[in-house]
Amino acid sequence: MKRKLIYLLSVMLLLSLGSYGAIKINGENKQYKGEGLTIVTSFYPMYIAALNIADGIDGVQVMNLTENQTGCVHDYQLTTKDMRTLSGAQVVILNGGEMEEFMESVLDQQEGIQVIDSSAGMEFLTGSTHEHNHEEESNQQESSHVHNHSDINGHVWLNVERYMKQIQTITDGLCKIDPLHEGMYRKNEEKYLEKLESLKIELESLKEITSGAEIIIFHDSFAYLAEELGMEVVHAVNTDGETALSAGEIAEVVEEIKLHDISFLFTEEQYEHTIAERIEAETNATAYVMDSLVTGGLDKNSYIKGMKKNIEILKEAFAVKSK
Ligand SMILES: [Zn+2]
């Protein structure tokens, strides 16, 4: 009996030591004594942000969960490879604004991963034109177009001023989680914000010619660029790849272009151009291919380069119009 009790006690002791060990390991991980911090970002814009903030810091590794060519992650589904990547992460950086719905349930289950929501506390634009579409659909026959997109427009990184806030939020989060490297994160933050500031100033001066212009966009993301440039989005055509546009909606867009005398259609590489081309053919509007900055290479300046290209395209578009 006594022997059995001793045996039982020692098993319990071993068990508790075992779990103590595990807790301790987790605890050590959370302090991050500079021994390998793995930051995983949800998709490309967050990856570029993190590459800049964690640049040149020994032992801090940034990985992108999705491929750099994945694009917007509206209908993304996690792969087993993604799950492996996530399981090695101590920090996950999200854009927020419901862009990462595909990760929500998984992150809830991953204990010990610290999540930084880069757009925490931000007010989002809503996809007003979506409502508009839905109303129409309810009047007409049922359409396959209605799926579970919410009305929150999460593409905040396309407004440089908002993107700068995201950079600050990410840096604040990393400094809290990894205080040992705070000085370096802050230095990188300052450097990156300085570059973004000059981009912001460029956009501000562009606003003089873009302000008040009415535009049609082929991806919700450009609503944020429009916001920064004082442009008014008359219609956001929802071409997210999986649903073809109905003839009715195309006719409606053509009507709106004529009614508002719209000169610009902003479309982008990742989606088909055929719809824009059709609309272009039927109206006086010109389609311009812009960059949502959701794909690219490993160049940490790719956001800045992409945005500069967008600025050039806009300058050209408005120069053509004023001729
Ligand atoms: Zn998108």
TrEMBL record:
Keywords in alphabetical order: Signal, Transport
Any one Pfam family match given in the protein's UniProt record, by short name: ZnuA
GO molecular function: metal ion binding
Coiled coil regions in record: none
GO aspect biological process, one term: metal ion transport
Region named Disordered: 129-148
InterPro entries, A to Z: Bact_metal-bind_prot9, ZnuA-like
PANTHER family in UniProt: HIGH-AFFINITY ZINC UPTAKE SYSTEM PROTEIN ZNUA (PTHR42953:SF3), HIGH-AFFINITY ZINC UPTAKE SYSTEM PROTEIN ZNUA-RELATED (PTHR42953)
Family stated for the protein in its record: Belongs to the bacterial solute-binding protein 9 family.
UniProt protein name: Periplasmic solute binding protein
Source organism per UniProt: Lachnoclostridium phytofermentans (strain ATCC 700394 / DSM 18823 / ISDg)
Source taxonomy: Bacteria, Bacillati, Bacillota, Clostridia, Lachnospirales
